[in-house]
Amino acid sequence: MAGTNPRAARIAALIQRVIATAVEGQLHDKRLARVTVTEVRVTNDLQIATIYWTQFGEEGKENGERQRAQQALRQSAGRLRSLVGAKAGLRLTPQLRFVYDEVPSEAHEIEDILVDAHRRDEELAQARLHARYAGDADPYRHDDEPDSSESAPSETEPINGAASSGSDANGTALYSTDGQ
Question: Which of 33, 38, 40, 98 could form a disulfide linkage to 16, CB 3.0–4.6 angstroms apart?
Answer without folding.
Answer: 40
